[in-house]
Amino acid sequence: MKNTTTTIQPNIEPQSRWRGYITTENIVTSLTSLIIFVAIILPLFWLVVSSFEVLDDMGFDTEWGLGNYYEVFQGRVIRKAFFNTLMISTGTTVLATFLGVLLAWINARTNCPWRDKIEPFNLIPFFLSPFVGAIAWHNLAAPKVGFLNNIARAIFGIESHIMNVDNIFGVIWVTGIFFTPLVYLFVVGSLRRMDPSLEDSARTTGASLFRTTMSVTLPLVTPAILSGAIIVFVTSAGEFGVPFKLGAPYGWDTLTTQIYSKAVGDDANHYLGAAMSMTLAAITGVLIWIQRRIIAPREYTTVTGKGFRPNTIDLGRWKWVALGVNLFYIFVAVVLPLICLLIVSFHPVWEGRIIPADLTLWNYKKILFFWSPESIGIATRGIINSFILAFSGATIAMILSILISYMIHRTKGFGSTMLDFLCVIPIGFPGIVLAMGVLVTYIKTPIYATLGILLVGYITRFFPYGQRNISSIMLAISEELDQSSRMAGASWLTTLRRITIPLLKPGIFAGWILLFVIFLRELSISIILYSVGTETLSVGVLYLADFEGDPLTAALAIVQTIILLGCIVLFRKVAGKEALTA
Amino acid sequence: MKEEKNSDYLIIENLVKYFGDDRAVDGISFAISEGKFLTLLGPSGCGKTTTLMCIAGLHKPDSGEIRVGGKSFTSLNENIFLEPEKRDIGMVFQSYAIWPHMTVEKNISYPLEIRNFESSEIEDRVMEVARLVGLDDMVGKDATQLSGGQQQRAALARAIVCNPSLLLFDEPLSNLDLKLRERMRLELKRIQNEVGITSVYVTHDQAEALVMSDDIIVMSKGKIEQSGGPHSIYARPVNRYVSNFIGVANLLKGKISSVSKTGLSEINISQDGKNILMPCVLDDKKFREGDNAVLSIRPENVYALREKPEGTAIEGEVIQTVFLGNYIDCRVQWGKFEWKVQAHPRERLKKGDHVYIRLDSNHSMAVLP
Q: Do A487 and B79 lie within an 8 Å CB cutoff?
């Protein structure tokens, strides 16, 4: 243990001062950070700038000022839209969180009958478009033409209607049931990965099943529940399709429908739109910040390298109630709307009643047979464009997600903290808001009016969904699994390829499907950024709803739905059962 | 000359690692010879794992040097930091880090595949190490089918399969049950002996350290308290901390009253208002008369006698006896102090017995407080 300074020498390779920093890892991660930084910060910067530009009365010139914000809080219409947005988001969050947690618990932790068969159906609403749901529920429960109301009138002989979704409650109802799977996905994954001995040990202390669930299970999945709830709040605040269909035409405007009318309407005012966007983003942004404060210190590593077998709780006779709850949810969120849309889509004109003599496939011809002269171009183009966008968007976004998650969870220091923060920003900014930012940023570049601008908008807004998917798994995977590969002599890239990515595979598949589906039915970004020739599927549906009748709209909605359902089936085969539940 | 080179196989010099403002490793230096088994021992948070991570290259130290076999792994002065994969180190992690998406065979062969070995050679090597660790009938299984002990063996096989220059263990036995842990200690030591790879082992379990190591470094708060062979650490602790951490000891505060270069020195213990002079060994510690010191005596060097011995008598009462088969763990109350005594079963000590304590003065160590 002495004389330690003399015997060194041989193999020391001379290294320049900076060589230690130029590694594959550092190059790849720095580049990714830069891309993400520019993609997120630029649109927001221009959005902020435009929100302080006030359009003069003539509509030609602008001057700096707070006029737009004054209008947001004092203008009668926008202030009302502001409060409507808050009420809708709150209602939606309560409904979706309640249903989502309940269903997740039933499916992950109880012996509810046939749950393995039912589980995939719980996720279906999430893969479908809420906008399509709104169209379906409008056809079902509008006061005059609503199918259910007509049936009720026929059976009970009443004069008026039994239900009406053309108001704020309708918006909450449809948004709530369609966003339930958001909470469900978060919570079910967390429940499945939870070490069952945590519950078992509570039971052995004498705590009842109910008490254990309340005092151990739920607190342990609280981060997942809160994440889900906040995502629902933020998503529903930014939801455009449902209020556009069920709210705005009946006097229930929201910020999103107002932004839309300021962006493309006759009284277009991008600057006022930007100010509204900033207001909306302020609410959602603050919420996300709160989430980070509450959830970040509560992230539990619930799995280690060892395997767990989650156990189930015997509900006794209550299991039939659980089954009933689950089936009811699937009925109102999936079965009823789809049946209704199918029926409507077979009619030349919809009057709220089935007319067997008139049933036809004519509507489908018009929206699918793009070679036929009678086809509606906006519908056929929308299908093709959406496929291109969804495939390329999901792939690019997942590659970014893997790299970013890696940086956040496997590297330390300022860079990883900043990235983590950056990835939260798009979640805090509703699609329509970000789209406004993207619009004002790229309007003078060549990508404007191409599919490129839609792609940029999609990825910027939604890659955090993929990233969260990966992060949650990466948090659960011990870092030692990566480290041991480095110790075995594998480089950073090899470790990523052979250890990290294979371990993340369920998360990567889940994330990819998530994004593919989100992109395939995306409306609120598309509606701001599309132009003639780059319409998407949902833009097509909206166009038909505005300018054609219910049956054509229903037909395209059904086509979109069938494509989405096909995706689910296909990917369940490719990725196995894991993919949708991990 | 050869000896000289050998004793400096792994050299750590002045290693410092901060976590925030916290000095996790506070300028430690040590070296070990080729083929030896060194244990870093200490409670959690003492910096032992951080030191190991720095050797592995998984943490970058804030200053210091690490060299293995003459090759510089880390030298902050010269801006050298070798990537972990270029260090040729085998490592066994606390969680074993067996990759769940691979078979046992794939797990073990991974380091060989990375190094582009021929597939026939890979097969041979994998079987060889699998046999060595006792997993030869498990290689085809999925990694997730392994028990804790088997995962442990697989992790070891993976670490040694390509004959690394250094083997690192991060508390590898802490997740096993006691029986298995005791067996694996000997097994690990046997395998390490067989492959002869220089090893650094991190643990908080002193029994593990004593059983397995050629050398032990006792750490606390990022610093080295004492280093040496298991026997000398146990028998000749330098301070109260080491004495207390390794094994069990009777510790009495006192002042050195006389220093002898050749024979026994004396320490003045004051207990319940009385002062008692006790003979003690100083070793080469630089005590002077009047210095504060702690007397440290292992229970096996303390005798509880029924008859009064010659010289200073310490009288006490047996307050607890625990029969452990080969000896009796006995507590004797002496004023406020409680002696821990290892008594022979045939003494038949009972609770309430009046006894005299005699100390084996050759094993009564005066240590730093």
A: no
The reply to whether A305 touches chain B by the CB within 8 Å rule is yes
CB of A499 less than 8 A from some CB of B: yes
Helix (H, G, I), strand (E, B) or coil at A549: coil
Q: What does the buried/exposed string (b/e) look like for B170-181 if buried means 16 or more CB atoms within 10 Å of the residue's CB?
A: bbbbebbeeebb
Contact A15 B79 (CB under 8 A): yes
A-chain CB neighbours of B115 within 8 Å are 489
Of B4, B83, B97, the CB nearest to A478: B97
pLDDT at A297: 57
- Name the minimum distance, in Å, from the CA of A437 to any CA of chain B: 38
Give the per-residue pLDDT at A298. 64
- Nearest-5° angle of CA A568, CA A573, CA A579? 65
Tokens for A536? 């998407």
Q: From CA A242, how far away is CA A223, in angstroms rounded?
A: 28
Contacts of residue B132, Cβ cutoff 8 Å, sequence gap at least 6: B157, B160, B191, B194, B195
Residues A112 and A560: beta-carbon distance below 8 Å: no
Contact A3 B111 (CB under 8 A): no
Provide the ipTM. 0.78
Task: Give the SS3 label for residue B275.
Answer: strand
Chains A, B: CB contacts under 8 A, how many?
Answer: 117
Question: For residue B170, what pLDDT is reported?
Answer: 92
Per CB-CB distance under 8 Å, the chain B contacts of A5 are 13
Alpha-carbon B60 to chain mean position: 24
Would you call A7 an interface residue with chain B, using a CB distance cutoff of 8 Å? Answer: yes
Locate the chain A residue with the closest alpha carbon to B79: A17
Contacts of A488 in chain B (CB under 8 A): 85, 90, 110-111, 114, 158, 162
Beta-bridge mates of residue B281: B365
Amino acid identity of A252? Answer: W
- The per-residue DSSP string of A29-59 comes to HHHHHHHHHHHHHHHHHHHHHHHTEEE-TTS
Beta strands (DSSP E) in B233-311 are: 250-258, 265-271, 274-280, 292-297, 302-305
Task: Confirm if A496 and A478 have CB atoms less than 8 A apart.
Answer: no
DSSP code string of A434-466: HHHHHHHHHTTSTTTTSHHHHHHHHHHHHHHHH
Interchain contact, A481 vs B97, CB within 8 Å: yes
A112 to chain B, closest Cα gap in Å? 28
Question: How open is the CA angle A565-A567-A572, to the nearest 5 degrees?
Answer: 100
Helix, strand or coil, per DSSP, at residue A522: coil
> Do residue B162 and residue A9 have CB atoms under 8 angstroms apart?
no
Q: Which residues of chain A have pLDDT under 70?
A: 1-22, 58-59, 196, 265-267, 292, 295-311, 412-414, 571, 573-582
The two three-digit tokens of residue A275, written as one number: 């100010």
Residue A576 has a pLDDT of: 53
Task: Please tell me the distance from the alpha carbon of residue A34 to that of residue A48, in angstroms, as a whole number.
Answer: 21
Could you tell me the maximum CA-CA distance found in chain A, to the nearest angstrom? 104
3-state secondary structure of B204: coil
Hey, is the C-beta of A304 within 8 angstroms of any chain B C-beta?
yes
With beta carbons under 8 A apart, name residues in chain A contacting B87. 487
Average confidence (pLDDT) per 10 residues, chain B, 369 residues: 60 90 90 92 91 91 90 86 88 88 91 90 92 88 87 91 92 86 88 91 91 93 93 90 90 87 82 82 80 90 85 83 88 90 86 88 87
Structure tokens at B58: 């998984």
Distance from CA of A574 to the nearest CA of B (A): 18
Query: What pLDDT score was predicted for residue B259?
Result: 85
Which of A332, A351, A330, A452 is closest to A396 using CA atoms?
A: A452
